[in-house]
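Lecture notes, structural biology module. Today: joint structure prediction for complexes of six components.
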Amino acid sequence: MNKYVPINSLEVPRFAEIKTFMRLPNIKTTEDIDYAVIGIPFDTASTYRTGSRFGPSAIRDISSLIKPYNAPQKVNVVEKLSGVDYGDVSVNPGYIEDTYERIEKELLPVVKSGAIPICLGGDHSITLGELRAIAKIHGPVALVHFDSHFDTIDSYFGKKYNHGTVFRRALEEGLIDVEHSIQIGMRGTFYSEKDLIESENLGFEVITSFEMREIGLANTIERIINRVGDKKAFFSFDIDFVDPAYAPGTGTIEVGGFSSMEILDMIRKLKDISFIGYDIVEVLPCVDPSQITAFLASNIVFEFISIIALQKK
Amino acid sequence: MNKYVPINSLEVPRFAEIKTFMRLPNIKTTEDIDYAVIGIPFDTASTYRTGSRFGPSAIRDISSLIKPYNAPQKVNVVEKLSGVDYGDVSVNPGYIEDTYERIEKELLPVVKSGAIPICLGGDHSITLGELRAIAKIHGPVALVHFDSHFDTIDSYFGKKYNHGTVFRRALEEGLIDVEHSIQIGMRGTFYSEKDLIESENLGFEVITSFEMREIGLANTIERIINRVGDKKAFFSFDIDFVDPAYAPGTGTIEVGGFSSMEILDMIRKLKDISFIGYDIVEVLPCVDPSQITAFLASNIVFEFISIIALQKK
Amino acid sequence: MNKYVPINSLEVPRFAEIKTFMRLPNIKTTEDIDYAVIGIPFDTASTYRTGSRFGPSAIRDISSLIKPYNAPQKVNVVEKLSGVDYGDVSVNPGYIEDTYERIEKELLPVVKSGAIPICLGGDHSITLGELRAIAKIHGPVALVHFDSHFDTIDSYFGKKYNHGTVFRRALEEGLIDVEHSIQIGMRGTFYSEKDLIESENLGFEVITSFEMREIGLANTIERIINRVGDKKAFFSFDIDFVDPAYAPGTGTIEVGGFSSMEILDMIRKLKDISFIGYDIVEVLPCVDPSQITAFLASNIVFEFISIIALQKK
Amino acid sequence: MNKYVPINSLEVPRFAEIKTFMRLPNIKTTEDIDYAVIGIPFDTASTYRTGSRFGPSAIRDISSLIKPYNAPQKVNVVEKLSGVDYGDVSVNPGYIEDTYERIEKELLPVVKSGAIPICLGGDHSITLGELRAIAKIHGPVALVHFDSHFDTIDSYFGKKYNHGTVFRRALEEGLIDVEHSIQIGMRGTFYSEKDLIESENLGFEVITSFEMREIGLANTIERIINRVGDKKAFFSFDIDFVDPAYAPGTGTIEVGGFSSMEILDMIRKLKDISFIGYDIVEVLPCVDPSQITAFLASNIVFEFISIIALQKK
Amino acid sequence: MNKYVPINSLEVPRFAEIKTFMRLPNIKTTEDIDYAVIGIPFDTASTYRTGSRFGPSAIRDISSLIKPYNAPQKVNVVEKLSGVDYGDVSVNPGYIEDTYERIEKELLPVVKSGAIPICLGGDHSITLGELRAIAKIHGPVALVHFDSHFDTIDSYFGKKYNHGTVFRRALEEGLIDVEHSIQIGMRGTFYSEKDLIESENLGFEVITSFEMREIGLANTIERIINRVGDKKAFFSFDIDFVDPAYAPGTGTIEVGGFSSMEILDMIRKLKDISFIGYDIVEVLPCVDPSQITAFLASNIVFEFISIIALQKK
Amino acid sequence: MNKYVPINSLEVPRFAEIKTFMRLPNIKTTEDIDYAVIGIPFDTASTYRTGSRFGPSAIRDISSLIKPYNAPQKVNVVEKLSGVDYGDVSVNPGYIEDTYERIEKELLPVVKSGAIPICLGGDHSITLGELRAIAKIHGPVALVHFDSHFDTIDSYFGKKYNHGTVFRRALEEGLIDVEHSIQIGMRGTFYSEKDLIESENLGFEVITSFEMREIGLANTIERIINRVGDKKAFFSFDIDFVDPAYAPGTGTIEVGGFSSMEILDMIRKLKDISFIGYDIVEVLPCVDPSQITAFLASNIVFEFISIIALQKK
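The predicted structure, tokenised, for the full assembly:
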């Protein structure tokens, strides 16, 4: 039996007890765990609607509906894995550079331990802190980035750090193995046509939503798998990749996106990539009274955990 | 001219007058009617978000937008049928066994009269009461069950009756002709892989959402039709079968579902099955400020009524 | 450099400053502009949920997220065009005939100047006033009408003017070149089967949603293009054409519609039609806390502007 | 036993059954009744937030919580009175003059019968139609008007009829006995200082909120009672008289108002005035998710009914 | 230093970390604690709006804003006391009698240990389970009951247990020392005048809201203190005692209540009563998007804890 | 006639046209104006709920309901004054020190011109930037600070700048004439008893809410007036000073506050203080669907403008 498993929902109702991710025990340990779910409630770097600091809490609340068996993947994550809700990184609201140090410092022991970190944002800026911790142990990693935005802008209002510049910074800091990195799903409107080639100029492979619709999801998946190869990879999922009908609760919505079914299916097919870390970011609960965004995020995290389970020897 | 028809919305605006389903007269009669719409505002058996006791009221409110002609089915339900809003069963909140007796007792005269009952939930537990009334007149019936959950769990917290156990109870009580019954659309996460075969072990045919996506909707329809054959059937529709983007207002959402267009299309194609009763359950209005869930439920009921109209000699 | 362009969002954050459409300058001028965005906050003619008088304001609020470059159309609207937010027509709430006069009078100088008007409703009744101004300069125009309703009913409650009768009135007044006009996307329920042929009897070509699903979107587009030919055309887009999952914020929702991706794609393909005016109507913000409807409307207007840019010599 | 009484809530739960005011039978009768509750779902005359056409429906929904005994007044309204929910006047949305004729025509039989009408708005414009019906039978009546606005403006945008001009019109039409009429509670901001004397110039007695705070509620009550004397009176209550903390759901809120406790207390003390009609207007449910405004309106109607009961011989 | 104290909010932001009451450690211990906050997420016994099963979770969420020092009481609860968030009782949704056994069984060790239990509802029915545990150790206790309802009805729909009958059952079971018990604040409408004397006939002292307004809050407090004397007492606080303007998030609102300032002041003045247990019930978050009800409940619990601190030797 | 006055709402409906404060012209001018309303949409420094960057926009939206005449103050602000909506300061989200420079720089010309600035927050941190601009021209000013929090904490999480430290920083920078400064209304819970004397130790006079209730509002006003004397003063109003029933839309609510009527009355009585600047901060619209908080803020700004009008020679 695994050491850390969720509360059994056939014994204690799902709406009861303190809210942790998937009802896992809330323990700040790196021993005897396969993965750790870690909240990073930081939204200082949002350039439009803010409030994703309540994202981790919203995801935990509704994640109590998640059960352990993944039917399409044929795996029971509770039987296969031990995991904890590691609680939240103690971010410093209003101070992004200090927060980056805190993220790096608090994630480092988890990464070092060999447990897989799954981070819940917060806005997308947090990924830089995560990648710093990861690169310190693993060196530069391949990035698999699902998003409706590139997040490789150079600066906003004269400043280097926010949720739209994070992957350019990561590249500059040598945290990403750009040769094996890929950005998926960009769409919406752009500042200029240069936006569309800027990431490619930086070295990323890019498949926009427009191209995805043309080549189909199967080809998209194939290109991701080929791009990453057997490199260690980090999976960064911005919830605004999903169409707002399925994920209205986020800060910078873009219409014309993908459905939840398409998205879960895509994630499942990446099951052979060697992910050594994950995050899901930009869940903004205050504009989504039906909680469907936070619940979709919970399911995406469950798919991440399922991949960990499938890859466990 | 049929005896009981809706208020004419070209004469009295849709937002005016007391709210009944589709503006039908609110009369507790079983005479001169082809069908009766009956609310069962019971949500005691919900295991997560509760509040579907306000489902019938929410459906009635927005159902005033429904007009009489069904274009794809080429039928005018008002010209073909006489129907009433029968009001609500006087449920006993907090007491499921007493409520089952009340449902059975209040539905019995309707079923006996030959009028088709269309029940508005309430949580899914109510179907057991409905099936008791129906089986008393018709004997065991084929079940056509659209849902994202099986609802054939044996018990929760040591108790036999709730919205997750209803079809196992119905089977044990001999209300269902399991050989001709089928469950459609199960998805989400599961307790274990056994969940997926438990209904089949009980004798149901099962087509999960995962399988539906593989075989397509046309094949799904064909298998339903073949399974039921010429048996008398009951159609139980849990609104959480629909994707939360289209039906956010329900208690136990599951992502990765079907669109409203797909769903209406499927229902229309079941028009030759001998349904002797219908229900639509689990509409939870308090988390859906735009009322799209209750309006979709209204349209589903309208499709039910259209089938009744098409089958009327 | 064009005279009137939006505030640069890399210098002033999108949430800052007075809200105009796409951050354009708010000037009531007809000089040096290619297009003018004009609010018509009138909802007196709504037959069900009202409140679309706040539609223009809601669209402006969230439209600050729109950037200038349209990737699928390969055009930068700010580089190509000068445009203004012309403010609102001073409607008279409660008085439709007076309001029609005000719309016509206030639009006339814009139309006369050769600038393309893009009107933000308000309910669909406003289109009659717009067409009066347009026909005064251009004569009868071809109508391209996307909607889930025909809006060609003769009268409601004995009155000629409201949001369900607007195109019959326009026809009677000789504002529409019906031979080259087409209605797209009608669905939902109907008063009778006559509803479905009434528009055709009036001379419109009609493609219902049901037919669209059969013939496909490519064929739909082709039929629109063929129908309009090289005539001057007016594009009237009712947001309820979109499925409520993607556009919950509207007054008379109809389930079973199209996705935002399908819709944007369709509009882009109409880029060679000679549109001399546009409107988008029936955005009702008070039932859509996540603002996805108003943001979709903003994107649709952006597609309109992109067509203007593509057609500019 | 009275002929028409509510459903017993100890037998049928309050959330069950078709929603009528206080669970009274929905019958369009004028026989054997002491009072009739009548919805007038008209909001065309609103000058700011619209949507009070759903006011009657919202009040009915939550009014099922009202029980029959009024403790401070020591009266049981069900034991003393027979009453019905008369349904709604078939208003014509968008057409105020036609609607006035409909209100007058539909109210006339009720007034004629001697039953007391209690009207649920809708915006305040409806009172003119009500007063026309009442004056036809009773002649000009004393007006007791609780509101944060005077509603005696001459015209808006060149038009005579809307929710801000209703009492000037009533005066001009000779429907009000202005010598015994009084306006209570005006506050907020004004167009000019003339606003404050305009009603007095028209002949009304006026006690603004500012004055009420100075003289106290007891003196206010005394002045109302003295003003009306033994004349037949009509009580018109605009829910925006109440502070927005207690009644957020209305179209033109004004801060700095009265609490629900103060208001119920004031109404109770008017129990000896010879009211021959009542209305409560401007409940706008779509901005009040907790339904506290509609419930306060239900309680105010209950106080009206209690006065009828106390005055019944 | 006390053993169990909250997270320091000058070090870890209030929105971070797993949500427990006032950021106390979540430990199911009875050792080294002065008090335990215990959720009882049961709402099966609600007779109108349901959903208070999410009350404990909502209170915990916003309670992170509570700081340790109570200025009017001049006490620092963290310096004086050790306390835990004990988590939730594992209730059985849909089954009230089984739930009562679970409440009693899970509370018993806490009561036995001498720690003071503070229970978070859930609907008011839960108090019966709490009193059973308490009476088992302490014998019958004096009840101090703040509520807008008596909750001493004999039965609803033929059943003995729900949120309106709880104190009659407690009395019948000998759990209450009725001679020293008092009910405060009843208001709203009633079934009949007998409702008002029924509790007194059962032996309770009663001060209705109507009487409170007459005698004033100081006299009310004095009568409570005199009634209880030096008996061990239980404080049961139904949030609907507060006016809906201050506490909109509850199931059976009653207008005309008290303000949060009045209420906190009253609780503070009961600081010398020997309370051996507390509860706060009927917080229903889904209708209160601004969370003011749950935050008021948090403050009320903080006042309870402050009394414990003041009484600690 | 004054140069800059609002749109006349008897000619153009209040819901029409681009939203500026009170419908003033949106011009960045310092000539011919008595006052300028300036948005500062910065919320990076919020320690709990964020989103007040949308405060200025929300206040402008609903401020169109404000009319020009102030009855209790007997002044018509449009007749007396010329004013503009100056638009927003171009803040830098995520960067407080850069934002302070921007605020100071953009406010300076206004202050220099002699026009009175009225700033709309944003969180309370912005006041430091405002005071820097003001002190540069006027030297240290007396502070009149209405708030439920002191905002004189030394630091959070090791950082000097956020919305809880603003007045300590202002003091350290010599921007405040502390001898004539006063803080009004602090309440809620505290970190320790030292919180209550810390401001006094810094030199402020303090009147907590608890003390206000004891001494009454008249004495409170008198003490403010005496404290400030004839010094130039700045009025900083945090909307959370108001009770959450009246102002639910704010980030760090505190129960037990004052009503809108009490608050407006207090502001009016400060009419003889020589205010040379004002702000209103912490309006957070996303949790207040009925907009009552933003409307109260609009009215408070109107009271500020009224004082400017009364003081104009």
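Point to remember: The first strand of chain D starts at residue 35 and ends at 40.
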